[in-house]
């Protein structure tokens, strides 16, 4: 992971966001809503702009930040997204409505592991973006990978979890933290050896795994 000075330097090179996006970022900071880090979202948007997916499925809407960033950056793309928390789901819909993106972003309320049949009707998806409960990443992947289009790409955020996956787990304070880090490590190991896919992990933000489906 990059040190703080380097991250600050890179962040200062990023063009200023729109007033509405800045407002969402401030809201997330004040209310401790997890959204992608500034450099991480820029890298994701760059990768998506090169891929030009027609349909994206996102697991983990939160307040709609990343879905809105993707939709405004990719004007021809349709996005389907699911959020477990009802309050955040309503906040996301409010933001999506205020920006006039209702026709391009379809939101679901519920557990992504329970609504696959509803989501399936909107596929296949050119890109999957996994950014929800980290301990469930392997389950999310297994459930939704079959909905990936040929040559599709799966993007997984937070796979380095502040660098803890690379450190001694005995240093972690709680059993829950150790379990979470173990499951993330297992997910990364799975991606690196998955037949028919090529994965690289980019150490920006909190770590983004890019998993490309090979022909």
Automatic annotation (TrEMBL):
<feature type="binding site">
    <location>
        <position position="83"/>
    </location>
    <ligand>
        <name>S-adenosyl-L-methionine</name>
    </ligand>
</feature>
<dbReference type="InterPro" id="IPR029063">
    <property type="entry name" value="SAM-dependent_MTases_sf"/>
</dbReference>
<dbReference type="Pfam" id="PF01596">
    <property type="entry name" value="Methyltransf_3"/>
</dbReference>
<feature type="binding site">
    <location>
        <position position="36"/>
    </location>
    <ligand>
        <name>S-adenosyl-L-methionine</name>
    </ligand>
</feature>
<feature type="binding site">
    <location>
        <position position="157"/>
    </location>
    <ligand>
        <name>Mg(2+)</name>
    </ligand>
</feature>
<protein>
    <recommendedName>
        <fullName>tRNA 5-hydroxyuridine methyltransferase</fullName>
        <ecNumber>2.1.1.-</ecNumber>
    </recommendedName>
</protein>
<feature type="binding site">
    <location>
        <position position="158"/>
    </location>
    <ligand>
        <name>Mg(2+)</name>
    </ligand>
</feature>
<dbReference type="InterPro" id="IPR050362">
    <property type="entry name" value="Cation-dep_OMT"/>
</dbReference>
<keyword id="KW-0489">Methyltransferase</keyword>
<feature type="binding site">
    <location>
        <position position="66"/>
    </location>
    <ligand>
        <name>S-adenosyl-L-methionine</name>
    </ligand>
</feature>
<dbReference type="InterPro" id="IPR043675">
    <property type="entry name" value="TrmR_methyltr"/>
</dbReference>
<comment type="subunit">
    <text>Homodimer.</text>
</comment>
<comment type="function">
    <text>Catalyzes the methylation of 5-hydroxyuridine (ho5U) to form 5-methoxyuridine (mo5U) at position 34 in tRNAs.</text>
</comment>
<feature type="binding site">
    <location>
        <position position="131"/>
    </location>
    <ligand>
        <name>S-adenosyl-L-methionine</name>
    </ligand>
</feature>
<comment type="similarity">
    <text>Belongs to the class I-like SAM-binding methyltransferase superfamily. Cation-dependent O-methyltransferase family.</text>
</comment>
<dbReference type="InterPro" id="IPR002935">
    <property type="entry name" value="SAM_O-MeTrfase"/>
</dbReference>
<keyword id="KW-0460">Magnesium</keyword>
<keyword id="KW-0819">tRNA processing</keyword>
<keyword id="KW-0949">S-adenosyl-L-methionine</keyword>
<keyword id="KW-0479">Metal-binding</keyword>
<keyword id="KW-0808">Transferase</keyword>
<feature type="binding site">
    <location>
        <begin position="111"/>
        <end position="112"/>
    </location>
    <ligand>
        <name>S-adenosyl-L-methionine</name>
    </ligand>
</feature>
<feature type="binding site">
    <location>
        <position position="131"/>
    </location>
    <ligand>
        <name>Mg(2+)</name>
    </ligand>
</feature>
